[in-house]
Amino acid sequence: MTNAVLSPSETPRRLHFEWVVPVLIRPGRTFAKIAAQSAGVWLVPMLILTLAALAGVLSAGWVKQAAALSGEVQLPPDFQYYPPEMQAQYMQAMQATSSPVFLYVFPAITALAGVWIGWLLVTGLLHLLLTLMGGRGDTLASLNVVAWAGLPFAIRDVVRTVYIVSTRQLIISPGLSGFSPPASEGLIAFLVEFLHVIDIYMIWNLILLVIGVRATTNLGVGKAIASVVITLLVVYSLQALLGFLASQLGGMTVIRPFF
């Protein structure tokens, strides 16, 4: 009688740092390896995305804090026409929002929510669409694919961080929003918020998602592309709507300084 002994190679690993670069330059082979995993291997990319997002928060907070200490205050348009009481309220609110809580804590919470809740939202919606279209992938596979396909956003955060630190200037109009009209209202303002997320990194993410979906499901190219595009349109439209509502609330006298 012999005893069966499990070799260490039979224990699935969850940390695969060796896939970070290959998934960006050789995604087909790497997603094939990811699809073959029976365990969740999403921790590494999610940690990288988290650290990159926090680096962006720290760099932006540092620039804002330096501007506050030097007395530089970004005033809203037509500030000179505000009544004296409104001007005083605005300046008091600007002083209050220059504290570390507003510069670092709240933005860090928002950034972490964007990374982790965004990951779960994209995964859930994408998995639902893939199932409706006849895909055979499971939820775990979708979690892995969405996490690894999100690494271009970590590169984007690093690039933005380097720019902010080197120039000591914030990025006011990210993505394609820099081509939008300077003053927008209504539907145009919503479209401007949507343009914030349209950049080369988003397209890179879309391509990786399609490759990952093809590796983990039995869907054809057309259905894979449709599932990914619909998912991203819904998620980015929701993000743009939240940004639009925040900008509208920012137009109010009392709330404006907090956005």
Notable characteristics:
mainly alpha; disordered N terminus; disordered C terminus
Short structural description:
By secondary structure, the chain is mainly α.
Average of per-residue pLDDT values: 83
> Spans with pLDDT under 50 lasting ≥5 residues?
1-9, 251-259
What Rg, in angstroms, do the CA atoms define? 22 Å
Shape: elongated
Q: Into how many domains do the coordinates divide? A: 1
Strand content: under 5%
Helical percent range? Answer: 55-70%
Largest pleated sheet: none
Order of helices and strands: HHHHHHHHHH
Number of DSSP-assigned strands: 0
- Estimated structural class: mainly alpha
* Helix segment tally: 10
**End-to-end distance:** 71 Å
Q: Would you mind describing this structure in some detail?
A:
The structure is a single chain. The protein has 259 residues and is an all-alpha fold. The chain has ten helices and no strands. It is elongated, with a radius of gyration of 22 Å. Mean pLDDT is 83; it is low at 1-9 and 251-259.
List the helices and strands and how they pair.
Layout: H1 22-25, H2 27-35, H3 43-69, H4 84-96, H5 100-132, H6 139-149, H7 151-167, H8 187-195, H9 200-216, H10 221-250
Helix pairs in contact: 2-9, 3-5, 3-7, 5-6, 5-10, 6-9, 7-9, 8-10, 9-10
